[in-house]
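Tutorial sheet, problem 5. The two components below are modelled jointly, 521 residues in total.
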Amino acid sequence: MAKHETPLLDQLESGPWPSFVSDMKQEAEARAKNVNNVEYQIPSDVIEDLLGVLELSYKDGETHWKHGGIVGVFGYGGGVIGRYCDQPENFPGVAHFHTMRVNQPSGHFYTTEYLKQLCDLWEFRGSGLTNMHGSTGDIIFLGTFTPQLEEIFYEMTHKYDQDLGGSGSNLRTPSDCIGAARCEYACYDTQDLCTHLTLEYQDELHRPAFPYKFKFKFDGCPNCCVASIARADMSFIGTWKDDIQIDQEAVKGYVNGEFPPNGGAHAGRDWGAFDIQKEVVDRCPTQCMRYENGKLEINNRECTRCMHCINVMPRALRPGKQTGCSILVGAKAPILDGAQMSSLLLPFVEVNKENDYQEIKDVIESIWDWWMEEGKNRERLGELMKRQGFQKLLEVTGIDPIPQHVQEPRHNPYIFWKEEEVPGGFDRDIHEFRKHHQR
Amino acid sequence: MALDYEESKQKIIEGLQKKSKTKSKFYFNDLAKILDAKPREAKKIVTQMINEGILEFWSSGSTSMYGLKGTGKQAGAEHENE
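Model answer (structure tokens):
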């Protein structure tokens, strides 16, 4: 018999999809049975109280969580999100219910042993509920009491070589796609860059001094598997400088039906014979391809790296050989002013391990200096860019304007000449001018 | 020029105490303004004050703020004042 009656929550289990309520009940039951004889350090009925308080919130139509508070372990200004219940007498198991963010291994690569160790630790010192993974990418531990925080942190760092992630006005846990480890499209080593910058910017990750959150995300190619272009204040998206590599024999193979398009991803239904004109050439957003006399041609100067043709015919087409990344800035979710995608700042940067990615760090740090000084409280980089202008961003980063910075020529040219950049300045001798131009 | 720690510490304590009737939590920018310093310089002072336990962090999860240790509602709610 459950500790609290939960008729409203029970209803959530009746739909066709797996329900988080069922998951929670399963964990509640497992904690009650405790077959492994775990010495639970927080109330063993934490999950039942969690279900109880959620049911009450549904009934009352308002939350019973208090907002904010404790932020972490000693010296850290993030990684723990304090949550307290405003009904601690009725639900003592969730009087404290702090979230801990754990910095996930780059590319979400971990062994099952590592995963088991983390779960055992959380079962022992927390609620046992996890979120694999939060939208930022971290491993999320849901629900523990204040006295457990330092203990968990000590064990994680000393036994498992594992740090907390970012929260609050910090650099958030950098996140990346699986990259070169398993993906043939990766144009740079996302995991190395992600890990390197995570280690380099520990101070920014753990000690909040930014106006608001700041996110890095690393995508190995323009398919953008971690959606950096939509979610990160700074997106690093793999790209190439030279031409798409074409294997004409393999192109013919696709046309003749020897290879399934999209690596067989849409094989669940019969879509008819593969039509290269309709499915590849006509789909090219810049119309830079043609297929004639059994030969595929690409006008690479017009290619915007949308990846569609490569995704459809991976055996025939590959990204070029001169690879690196594009840096885009300013994406955010729609709290103020609606959602914003990243704007292109640098079309191509070599991702150079040899000099510890110095070129990339220079850009990052100049942006931070500007945003830390000029950003209003709770203003994201994308909002500051909108407020002060893209030109200001170029100025602070020392990057010259290029055509790729302008979305549509003559429509909204936000790159202006400054007086000192114009030979002779803005003042001119009208008599000299009139010698060549009539009134 | 690097800021003098003791002097900066006093400035922040006084600055925050002056406003303590109406506010107990402050943005990082407020502290940098009190010190009239660049954010990176101010951060060094603030971090040291945190490490010494004079200031403490507060966070909603999305935003972080700073306050003199023990001030504000949350400390009361956690019975730290008793």
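Marking note: Chain A has a mean pLDDT of 93. Full credit if you identified this.
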